[in-house]
Amino acid sequence: MTYVVTDACINCKYQDCIEVCPVDCFYEGENTIVINTEECIDCGVCEPECPVDAIKPDTIPNSAFWVELNQKHAESWPNISEKGTPPADADDWANKPDKLSLMSEKPAA
């Protein structure tokens, strides 16, 4: 099993999960973060830290899609090991559903 970041993180990017990850398997994009599913040790400590419930185990429906999406971007985005500042409008995006179409393919600046 591994964990994945879903579209609930898009435009929120609170990054509370970064602080607790013992293996630094998070990677940062312009408006979201992802988990390197090959580095994740399946400890699950990140899941309860996410204030928007964006982190899920790979047992959710459509998990293959999320595993592939997370791994694809983890291979090209920079690793993040310290919590950064969330976007100023993160709270406005926190409860909006179905944000996948808003995901930027760009790495964090």
From TrEMBL:
It comes from Octadecabacter temperatus. It holds the Pfam family DUF3470. InterPro entries: 4Fe4S_Fe-S-bd, 4Fe4S_Fe_S_CS, 7Fe_ferredoxin, Fd_C, FdxA, RnfB_subfamily. The keyword Transport applies. This is Ferredoxin. Keywords: 3Fe-4S, 4Fe-4S, Electron transport, Iron, Iron-sulfur, Metal-binding, Repeat, Transport. Coiled coil: none annotated. Its cofactor is [3Fe-4S] cluster; [4Fe-4S] cluster.
